[in-house]
Amino acid sequence: xxxxxxxxxxxxxxxxxxxxxxxxxxxxxxxxxxxxxxxxxxxxxxxxxxxxxxxxxxxxxxxxxxxxxxxxxxxxxxxxxxxxxxxxxxxxxxxxxxxxxxxxxxxxxxxxxxxxxxxxxxxxxxxxxxxxxxxxxxxxxxxxxxxxxx
Length: 150
Known about the structure:
Elements: H1 80-87, E1 95-96, E2 108-113, E3 116-121, H2 123-128, H3 135-140, E4 143-144
Parallel strand pairs: 1-2, 3-4
Antiparallel strand pairs: 2-3
C-alpha cells in the first residue's frame, strides 16, 4: 500500500459457530456483501475461528454483482480463459455474453442482433464436457463454432 493509504472496513460478518451444521463438502458458498465505500483495492479475510478441522478454500472470486445471482459482464474478463480452461472437462454448462467466449472454450455465447438475443454454440466444448445440445437448440443457434462469431 502506498504512503498515506490505509484499509477502511466497509463490510464485515462476525465469526459465529454453526449450529447443527456438520460442514460443507464440495459446496459453493456465495456472499453478496453491500459495500458502503469504494476504493481501488479490496482485501478479504476468511476466518475459521470456530472450525474443528482445517478450512480448505478451493477457489475464491471477486466480481461485481448485477441482479440476482448475475455478475456484471467483464468483471471477470481477465480470468475468462482460466475459468473456461478449468471447466473444459467438467459437466458444467458455461454461458456468457462476453465477446470471444466461445473461442475461449465457452459453450454458449450470447449476443444481440438488433433487438433480438441470439447465441452461438461451441459443439466441441459441449461434447468435451459430455453435454449434448438438442437438435432444436442446434437449429436455432446462430452459428456452430469452436471459435468466436467475430
